[in-house]
Structures are given as C-alpha cells and as structure tokens.
Amino acid sequence: MSLPSIRRPQSVSAAREGWHGWDDYAQFYDWESAQTVQRRDVGFWQRLAARIGGPVIELGCGTGRVSLPVARTVEMVVGVDRSSEMLDRARSRLRRSRYGPRVKLVRGDIRALPVLDSGPFRLAMAPYGILQSLLRDRDLRETLCSVAGVLQRGGTFGIDLVPELPTWGEYQRRVSLRARRGSRGGQLTLIESVRQDRDRGITTFDQEFVERKGARRSSHQFSIAFRTLSIRKMRNRLERAGFDIEAVLGDYRGRAWDSRAQAWIILARRR
C-alpha cells in the first residue's frame, strides 16, 4: 500500500489573504463545482454577454468554467486569475474547445488589473462569490476601482454573491461530498470543517480531499476563506467607485431580489 501524500492546512494567520488555498484547490475545483453549483449560473453569464457584447473580462476565471462558455457568445473573453494552478487547468480546457482561441488568460491580481490590448471592456464579470474572497475593505475598494479603470463608459459590471455565508453553522470534519472522480479516477471524498469569525464576517472552510484508487490513498488539506458582503454594502462601495446600480436580481433567470433570494446578483453601470 502506498503511503498517503498529505498537504497540511494553512495557519489562521496565513489565511488572512483571500487568495491563499486556491492553488491547492485547483485540482478539485471542477469536481466540487460539478456537485454543487453545477452549471446553474453559466447560462446567465452567456445571456448577459450576448446582450451587452464583448470584449468581456472575468475576475477570478479559475479553470475557465464560465469564461469558455461565454466565449461561445462573444468574440473575446479575457480571464484573469492569480492562481497559476487554476490557469493551467483552464489552458487545458481551452485546448480541447473550438472556442478556446477566443479566450485570453492572464495571471494577475484583480485588485490591480493589468492594462490589456483587449480593453476597454464592455462587460466585467465577477461570478459566484469571487469578490467575497477579498477579506478586507481595502481589497474590495481597490478591486472596484480597478474594474472601473478597464471598463468602457457605460460598461456593465456583473457581480454574483453567495448569500448564505453568515448562516453557515460551524462544524468539524463533516463528510460533505463523495463521488467518483471521472471515469478513470478513484473515489473522492470531501471532509470539511467550518469556522466563523462573526466580528469580521469571515467564513473559513478547512478542507480535506481524500482520494482512494485501488490500494492507494492520498489526502490534501488546505483552507479557503470568504467574507460576507451585503447588498447594501456592495451598492455603497460600487457607487463610491463610480458605478450606478442598474439591477439587483434574485436568481439566474432574472427574478427580482429579496433577502431570501437564492442568489444575489448586482448589475452596475460605469458612469
């Protein structure tokens, strides 16, 4: 029997930056997304991009889960991510698709977006809680100003927030997911712990992915953290950064928002 390979979780101090843990998460991100969010949000971003047109920039594009489908509707999508591990998987996905040439991947920090020949952009996308990985107000402020700097006047900024973070109960080492990893992969299990820092509004997920394939067992441990952001706070921050709120939606089909909505989506227009 092979000895397990173990990645130790980061310390609490190391997790103070929201980008910590995402390189480790990269090899499991698509598997977990397929069990949880699936593709529920993808059609929304495709329809929005088709209506507004390109070029489009995605913040925190990760493995290309959203960027590549959006590229079917516009001629140019630029995906920005800090994680080289995530981008490696995105490049592999692009190579397998006929729409891959329409996507340009850039390694960068969303708090200081690089000046790109593809811009200025008509649409900036921040899917599925990516802005909630910014754990300090300063990080959020810098990101919103950076987005304003790469958007055209009148360009749209779409933001998708995860609403249930503050209601997540704390627990220790709970089996959250279990499924096979592709046709040739082994059995993959996610063992998860949740910690809440209510004063700072930060939820930390300590994750262990355990894969069993035949007699071999491997274990990878890391932590990722997200911050609670309310609609009111986001509206205020966006207006200060030079945006006007165009719509607040409660799901991916365009239903009006209320506090019990399944998704919190903000569409803002750059002044």
TrEMBL record:
Keywords: Methyltransferase, S-adenosyl-L-methionine, Transferase. CDD domains: AdoMet_MTases. GO terms for biological process: methylation. GO terms for molecular function: methyltransferase activity. InterPro entries: Methyltransf_25 (IPR041698), SAM-dependent_MTases_sf (IPR029063). Transmembrane segments: none annotated. Residues 56-155 form the Methyltransferase domain. Gene3D superfamilies: Vaccinia Virus protein VP39. This is Methyltransferase domain-containing protein. It comes from marine metagenome.
